Amino acid sequence: MCKILQLFLMLGLFMATSLDLSAQVDLSGTVSYTNGTFSYTAGNTVPYRVCPNVPISLNAGSAAAACAGRGGVARSFYVTGTTGGGNQTEITPAQPGNIVRVSFPSYFRFCVRCNNGDMIESAPIFFNPSGTTEEGEACATAILPVELSSFKGSNIESGIALQWVTDSELNNDGFEVEFSVDARSFETVAFVDGNGTTNETQSYEFLHKTNRPGSLYYRLKQMDFDGAYEYSDVIEVMREKSNNGNIVIFPNPASEAFTINVSNPERLNSSVKITDLLGKVIFEVSFQAGEAPDFFEKEFTSLTQQMYIVTTRVGTEVTSHQVANIN
To answer: Residue 191's closest CA among 177, 210, 171?
Structure first.
């Protein structure tokens, strides 16, 4: 039963609303597996077996038809509960497709409140997460694991644009995007949420904001909800090498943060200093010849000054830049 008493109290319709047991609205659920798409009808007494967290598309009958002769539809909504009893709650299925997922025995209903006060609801549809589908196929074969169909990167003005596509996903929590300059030691630069379990093609993208020159290497670490993971192949993206002392500051003007890039392929003695307009040092670092990195990159956030002075030295070459904060 829908939480009618709670709705009465919320809507102030205790005396005006009644459950019409003689009327009912249809409800079914659709699940797609590798061997086909299957539809299940509400009113089942034995729960349908579905693979855990597989997308279930809820398909409700016409709310307008249910409220015909009752003044039209005031409101329609879905509720869910557990087969073990307890309170049921209103939910908003994911769109598109009114998608729900189950990780424990659950049921769903579709409820319609008409303008004359009648409440009409569907029969419940019960699902039980299982290692096999209702048709008897093992979930290990009914749903493919995360299948990465493409992974590529392109060099654009603001950094490296990464795009990847999956043909299917099983319990996919998401992707760690990892970056390296030598294809051996990787660091995580971002996490991109996955789409759980789906047999539909999914597209992803991430922009790595960097001006580092040379060969840049990327890989994906696909993470399951249970902590299991798998690495993608490593891809290489080239950025044009810079000369000694090439300084890039972006964005400028800045609003939330700015990044400093200093190219020093000969690893000359170098330094970077940031001050405010009064000369107060906010950041400073220096390197001896031979110990200096061939590329220095540093991001600065939490900007509080209206203007910053960035002074860099590479060998005997000294440059100075102003960075405006437009916040």
So the answer is: 177
CA proximity to 29, closest of 13, 49, 10: 49
The position carrying tokens 């009808």 is: 41
Phi/psi region, residue 117 (left: phi>0; alpha: psi -120 to 50; beta: rest), is left
CA distances from 230 to 142, 176, 220 (A): 20, 10, 8
Side chain identity at residue 85, one-letter code: G
Radius of gyration of the CA atoms of the chain, in A: 29
Pick from 146, 226, 227: which is nearest to 194 by CA? 146
The Cα 115–Cα 216 span in angstroms is: 62
pLDDT at 187 over 80: yes
Question: How do residues 205-223 score in pLDDT, each as one tens digit?
Answer: 999 988 787 789 999 999 9
Give the model confidence (pLDDT) of 95-117 as tens digits. 778 889 898 999 999 999 999 99
Q: CA-CA distance, 185 to 207, in Å (whole number)?
A: 20
Q: Is 131 in the same domain as 20?
A: yes
Domain with 291 in it: what CATH number?
Answer: 2.60.40.3080
What's the domain range around 229? 144-239
Sign of CA dihedral 241, 247, 250, 256: positive
**C-alpha–C-alpha distance, residues 131 and 138, integer Å:** 6
Give me 289's structure tokens: 């010849």
Query: What pLDDT score was predicted for residue 14?
Result: 36
Q: Give the burial class of 164: count Cβ atoms within 10 A of its Cβ; 0-12 exposed, 13-18 middle, 19 or more buried.
A: buried
Distance CA 79, CA 42 (A): 13
Instruction: Let me know whether 107 and 10 are in one domain.
Output: yes
Residues 63 and 96 reside in one and the same domain: yes
Q: Give dist(CA 284, CA 296) in Å, integer.
A: 13
The CATH number of the domain where 69 resides is what?
2.60.40
Q: For the beta carbon of residue 112, count every other beta carbon within 10 angstroms.
A: 28
Cis peptide before 253 (omega within 30 of 0): yes
Cβ count near 304 (within 10 Å): 9
